[in-house]
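Q: What structure does this chain adopt?
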Amino acid sequence: MKLKVTIEGRSKTLDIPSRYVDEAGEFFDKMDSDMDRGWQIGPEFIESPDTIQRCQIAADKMLAAIESQNENLMYLMAGYILNRMPNVVEVDIDVNGDPLGTQIKTADSTSGHHLH
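A:
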């Protein structure tokens, strides 16, 4: 599966092996369980993150994995996003410390429209 990732205006299309999307359900469920208790997202504490916020959290973790060259974690976070929001085509990751600024573009969103 493919996911376009944009960081500071530079885009790259990741080719995520299907095992990271389809076979990591237990890992993804653990992530959701952790987020069910609320999550500090940038300056805000979110009591009950919704699907988009959870994907923004995963994108923030993906950024850290890219920066530390942890390919396995990068693919797992991309896989989480694709598993939880199968219609995602692009993630524009905020690098200023506010995951809520990360934009997630879906295949069914209108041109230029980003979900927050």
